[in-house]
Amino acid sequence: MWQHRNFPLLCLFNSYAIPFLIAKFGWNDGLGGLLYAGIIRIFLFQQATNCVNSLAHWLGDQPYADTNSPRDHIFTALITFGEGYHNFHHEFPADYRNGIRWFDYDPTKWFISLASPTSIISAWLGFACHLQEFESNEVNKAIFQQKWKQMEKLKRQINWGTPLDVLPIYSWSEYEALCINHGGSKYLVCVAGVIYDVKPFVDSHPGGRTLIEAYVGKDATASFHGGVYRHSKAASNLLDNMRFGVVRGGSRVDLHQQKVRHLNGLFKSSSISANSPLLSSLDKTC
Hints:
Layout: H1 2-5, H2 7-27, H3 30-50, H4 74-79, H5 86-91, H6 107-114, H7 136-156, E1 169-170, H8 172-178, E2 188-191, E3 194-197, H9 209-213, H10 221-224, H11 233-240, E4 243-247, H12 252-268, H13 277-284
Parallel strand pairs: 1-4
Antiparallel strand pairs: 2-3, 3-4
Helix pairs in contact: 2-3
């Protein structure tokens, strides 16, 4: 083709000769046109183009994949005319777009879209057809996988407290004996069958020291979950870091219900009625 055979001359003419001639015959400043519209413009455009393989692999996020170095960033997109959404380009190279969201700065995408058969001005342009777009399901899948990987990384950095399955097991009487109000030395509170050592938090408790001390050695499940105050998720998370042990059979209420069920089972197999005064009196002592 003619333009291929004469490519070097066309580059020199369009890059330097035309700016010089326009400035020369337009306002008699050919050297100014050559310098600003020629040399400096070419220099800046070359630097912007090279940013695709430098800045676009260093600045920004990796919302689709992190196996390689390309990244997405609006600053790189502004100076490279849309090529700054480089992570998407590397992950979905068949897609004609770089920035897939409507507000992503991608002039190339906009021009190609206008030149496509679906455009209202395609009748006189007709430059582009059969534009390829990756399925949105696959794009969303990549986004989800990347976010999941980041969440797993964050999860490994968080202290979730001692796992419940490795905590020591105490009977209710053993739990009470450890507490300061029963001759022990610890500030222990039971919530939903889990024993917590709240001593580091006693002086920091928003409700005051007296309130939290009132539940030492007791079952604070109902109070913690709304009886006194419905604590936030953050409070539950903070409590997880104070795990001390678990109560055998659960909370005091659970132990009481187990004893009642046991007594009911015994009396069902005997001649004594389950609703007799004898059962009621035994129930009150459990």
